[in-house]
Specification:
single chain, 302 residues, mainly alpha
């Protein structure tokens, strides 16, 4: 749940690359803390319940958005979109929490880098966006990176890996819906509706496996909500300060930190293939982002 809960942000001309990179550095740090805290809570709270509590406890961060939400004109079609997005995103978050209890932090981070690739493919299949050969080549390279991370046939594929594939695909659906909804309402409303609809979608799953959490567990999950909110805020500031093609490579540090924390605190092994595969995926994603930004600048100059 690192780079996967922020709606697509329109790329702007560079204002300050160093400032944008600094904001993205802060965002990556926050998301690593989210991973570490979820890993710390572990399986003491079932994944569906932990994900549900994270969003319920995070509703306090919704308060500044209530004014924009009250003023928004939400049509029946938008309600349908927000409901579908809440279900897709909610199940995706549950899968992410489950993966965190099954596989190393580094693998969760590396596999999460595939999310923009699924968004690109989804935009082509659902929205009819054209895939030029450089973009298709980059997608192919990213898929190769994904295979390097998983290495099917050379090691056992855990249920956590399958959960992460499902997470990235479900988040791609969520972001595509967010992009469509953002044409009619503000980004604040899109985020606020996600915060409201996700716990509603999660509730049946959480109730089915409910165990009474302890006060310390609730405290850790509240910190998860806080760091996740701060991570999305700093990511948005990063995109506002510099193009995504500039800030995206900084996200590689998240993989480095995840590997280091997983090894130092949780005793997870360091897998060089995961780091190599993650770097390949992120490189391909950065190329796609850079190319799209370049095309937008060329179109604007005409």
């Amino acid at each position: 749940m690192s780079t996967v809960e922020t709606p697509p942000v329109t790329t702007r001309p560079a204002q300050s690359p160093l400032v944008g990179m600094a904001w993205m550095l802060g965002s990556s740090s926050c998301f690593v803390m989210v991973q570490a805290l979820v890993k710390h809570v572990g399986s003491g709270v079932p994944a569906a319940e932990a994900a549900f509590l994270r969003y319920i406890l995070g509703l306090v961060f919704l308060i500044p958005m209530l004014g924009a939400l009250r003023q928004a004109r939400i049509t029946r079609q938008l309600w349908a979109l927000f409901t579908l997005r809440g279900l897709a995103h909610g199940v995706g978050v549950i899968c992410w929490f489950y993966a965190m209890t099954r596989i190393p932090m580094a693998e969760v981070t590396a596999m999460n880098y595939m999310n923009p690739v699924y968004i690109t493919i989804g935009a082509a299949l659902v929205l009819g966006e054209r895939l030029a050969w450089p973009r298709m080549t980059a997608i192919g390279v990213a898929v190769i990176g994904g295979f390097i991370i998983l290495r099917p046939g050379f090691r056992e594929i855990d249920l956590g890996h399958i959960a992460m594939i499902a997470t990235a695909m479900l988040f791609a659906v969520s972001y595509l819906i967010a992009g469509k909804a953002s044409r009619d309402v503000s980004a604040t409303v899109v985020v606020a509706m996600l915060s409201l609809m996700v716990p509603v979608a999660m509730a049946p799953f959480a109730i089915a496996v409910w165990v009474t959490p302890t006060l310390p567990q609730l405290g850790w999950l509240f910190l998860v909500a806080g760091f996740a909110t701060m991570g999305h805020y700093t990511m948005t500031r990063a995109f506002a300060a510099a193009p995504m093609a500039v800030t995206q490579p900084v996200m590689f540090l998240q993989l480095v930190w995840s590997t280091a924390i997983g090894w130092a605190i949780f005793g997870e092994g360091v897998d060089a293939w995961v780091i190599i595969g993650g770097a390949i995926v992120l490189g391909a994603v950065t190329f796609i982002t850079w190319r799209e930004a370049r095309k937008k600048r060329a179109s604007a100059a005409r």
